[in-house]
Write a structure and sequence with these properties.
The chain is an alpha+beta fold and about 180 residues long. The chain has one domain (about 5-180): Structural Genomics Hypothetical 15.5 Kd Protein In mrcA-pckA Intergenic Region, Chain A. The chain is about 20% helix and about 30% strand. The protein has an 8-stranded mixed sheet with strand order 5-4-3-6-7-1-2-8, covered by helices on one side. The chain starts with a helix and ends with a helix. This is Plasmid pRiA4b Orf3-like domain-containing protein.
């Protein structure tokens, strides 16, 4: 049965290009290990997180926001290529009012992460804040058993704080650093 969103999505002429899995109960015992790197900043700002393997892309977005220290006050989307696909799929928050030629964005809360992150080494881009354009690289590093007593998601590693919100992208961030160091 289609969700209310999926029905609205297809009624507007969009096509769903993914299949919903039938049985995912085995995923409840596993977590994914991801490495997230904020691109174009030197020295590197990065995090390593563990998230439940049954998460959807919305859940992954929230885990990235929390681990990086972002405030989740801007739009976002993931860009990922499925196995055997030539074109990247954009997953995030759809905007039905867009009038440009950009590819549609599929609903992150409808798509399980394992639909695309189904092999070690799979990578995706995660864009946060369409104004400041913070591009992240996300890489699946591991698929491991959950540990009892640990509340997931959890950040298990990383270096350096993320830039302040609305600082003006990479160049603005470097200006903030220069100003603070003087």
């Amino acid at each position: 049965m289609k969700s209310r969103f999926e029905k609205n999505f297809t009624d507007k002429g969009y096509l769903m290009n993914y299949e919903k899995p039938r049985n995912i109960s085995y995923l409840k015992n596993h977590v994914f290990q991801f490495k997230i790197e904020l691109l174009e900043i030197i020295p590197l700002i990065w995090r390593r997180i563990l998230v439940p393997a049954d998460y959807n892309f919305w859940d992954l977005h929230v885990a990235i926001q929390d681990s990086m220290g972002w405030l989740d006050s801007h739009l976002h989307h993931f860009e990922i290529r499925g196995k055997g696909k030539r074109k990247e799929t954009r997953i995030g928050i759809p905007d039905f009012d867009r009038m440009d030629d950009l590819e549609e964005v599929y609903p992150g809360w409808e798509i399980p992460v394992f639909t695309y992150f189904n092999d070690l080494g799979v990578e995706a881009k995660y864009l946060y804040d369409y104004g400041d354009f913070w591009m992240h690289n996300i890489k699946l590093e591991g698929y491991i058993y959950r540990e009892k007593g640990i509340k997931y998601p959890i950040c298990i590693g990383g270096d350096r704080a993320c830039p302040p919100e609305d600082c003006g992208s990479v160049s603005g961030y470097y200006n903030v650093i220069e100003t603070l160091s003087n």
